[in-house]
Amino acid sequence: MSITRNEIRELCAEHDRMMMEHADWMARREAAGAAPVQKSDEPAVLYREHHDNAPEPAPQRDAEASDDDLLPYAIDEFTKAVVEKFSAVDRENQYLRGKLDALLTLLGKSDNLSNLKAADVVELPHGFLRRRTDHAA
User: Fold this and answer.
1) pLDDT of the residue at 42
2) Residue 60 and residue 89: Cα distance in Å, rounded?
3) Which helix H or strand E contains 88, and what residues bound it?
4) DSSP for residue 132
5) What pTM did the predictor assign?
6) Listed residue (89, 114, 90, 92) closest to 104, CA to CA
């Protein structure tokens, strides 16, 4: 494959155009990245002044709501939430016990969950369980 002079000239012109676009893009990027600097009249560091290095006194507590008044309410709400959660778990447990009882009844293993019978022995077909090293068919 040979390249003619005209093709080389076109490639060089395209390269020059792309380099100019890149230079313009870099100039715009640098101009946008450089934040204008403004001098402010305020000092850069703020100082807190205390007399004799004593901290300010703590704010006064509100007399409306005290921790002693809220504690029984909080305990009552917590108790209600715990009872509700346990009730939900009990309902789910009863539902699952019913499902299990129905499944065992369908399989013929039990009349109900409290009277589980011993499982029937099922004979597996010959060769159902083979050792991994046994390659016989």
Assistant:
1) 65
2) 45
3) helix 67-107
4) T
5) 0.31
6) 114
